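Ticket reopened. Same input as before:
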Amino acid sequence: MSDKAPWITFRPELKVLDCTIRDGGLVNAHQFSDAFVAAVYRACLDAGLDYMEIGYKNSERVFPKAKFGPWRHCDEADVQRLFGGHDPEATGLKLAAMADAGKSDWETALVSSHESPLSMIRVAFYAHQVSEAVDMIRHAAELGYETTANLMAVSNITEEEIDTVLEAIADTPASTMVIVDSFGHLYREQIDRLYRHYSAALAGTGKEIGIHAHNNLQLAFANTIEAIILGCNRVDSTMFGFGRGAGNCHTELLLGFLRNPKFDVRPVVEVIQNHLLPLRKELDWGPSIPYNITGQLNQHPRSAIEWREGSTPDDFIGFYDKVVAEI
Amino acid sequence: MSDKAPWITFRPELKVLDCTIRDGGLVNAHQFSDAFVAAVYRACLDAGLDYMEIGYKNSERVFPKAKFGPWRHCDEADVQRLFGGHDPEATGLKLAAMADAGKSDWETALVSSHESPLSMIRVAFYAHQVSEAVDMIRHAAELGYETTANLMAVSNITEEEIDTVLEAIADTPASTMVIVDSFGHLYREQIDRLYRHYSAALAGTGKEIGIHAHNNLQLAFANTIEAIILGCNRVDSTMFGFGRGAGNCHTELLLGFLRNPKFDVRPVVEVIQNHLLPLRKELDWGPSIPYNITGQLNQHPRSAIEWREGSTPDDFIGFYDKVVAEI
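Engineering reply: fixed in the latest deploy. New output:
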């Protein structure tokens, strides 16, 4: 990259993936109306985004349909119902779904990519699940999908574990290895080290490095920028930061930062005003003291989510004292 | 600094200044109850902070007392009333007030530092006011105060202007030159350049470099961390980010990041829960789409504040279209 005011220009190879529906669905068990999903899809198209992640391709055995909405499973019938006419070539937007190792019937749930509006399967896994993840990536790639490897909770494992995962993924058809800060714990010097680590381990494989940041410490956008500065070309974000717990890097902030003229932030502002702002009055997400605390402690946001959903969501001191006592 | 996991250790020389009352008062014309100010003071003491900025030392001619509360003026009688018994040596906390060039009766309003609970006068100025700022700094220093030079809106002036200001300030008794991102526009590569610029211009003067960030783009904490990484030892923050427009770097996030064991985040969490959360239900501050937009455009947040205070605060598209039309 040029050292001269790099913020004036742009890298055409940088692709934005909006995961509003997928990550936001973790807040409400993917109980979205079709109209909501269609509005986000429209915004992705109009904003010039590169990928839209429409949900999880996870199992109804783990996530019963009585409790979870269709975008937790992304059954082909549902995908066809909403996205049947989607044309990735004509629109420049590719559709993606995420499959969780250990929670997906990936052996049977995936159809050939030629029969599906989906272009990409992102495989999410914890370090100990890497063997299944490799199988999932190979299987999805054989069916014609672009694939990514999303090693979750990277702030919570050793460098040795990361090395082993990177070695296993290097040998797969995954196009991208994503740095996933599930706990929203990392700050920029740690992002730097992880990026260099990922980058060195994957050198020569042609794989891109991605970034998926959470906003527990109000660092999701900053860490995303940092990864971009270092060379990440695959970037996750959600509209209005909608996502589990403290939420994500905001798509509208990201588009305001990127200088590729193909992006237009206005459709995102529109869907925020008309769909996400009303939703924000019903659902809780975004940085708040409990998420700050779990982020700082490098903990899963689970306890903070439970606290925010409980009877005393604003008893920050109560949460602080509870967590400190448990350390 | 060590290259080995610098986030494990700390720099004892790094000082935190909490400006909750001073910057937060811009949201409500400093109409605070004494109880509120006393609670923030208590939290500063208990949290182990180094400085508390209690308000502005500005003129009642510019800010009439009928409209503005006492901490816009910091008359000595008010300062004595609330902080008369304050002992900076025994508590480790120094009290500061800010004086704005062009808006302060600094020639007559300041008493000798030995007669005041205040230890520090921070001089805020725009580039074109640097001559008055130099006079203000010299005058306050002669009266025994520690002084700082806070060049505002640095994202909006040329490098030549910055150079001229730095040259003028280098020759004053100011202990600190603060990088002030009034518009919340900067991101980390720009912070880097400014820091190097300030640092080179002030080399050999013994002056510290400070950082005062705004949160329009959710980058206040990240940019503060960045400045710290580079070597800033004077850091501004406010509790719960309370401050004009999009607000500031959050004190509770900052203390969670710093590793100096003298800091304790719990008293800050307590004052947030008991005083700032209730206030947040009455007053608007913190990142939202209008502030995102002015931050991205490197504009003063004035228009966004007016929009948020108007009849359609959540008409983000209306604000976007208005601003874009005016560019």
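The longest strand of chain B covers residues 118-125. The radius of gyration of chain B is 19 Å. Please confirm and we'll close it.
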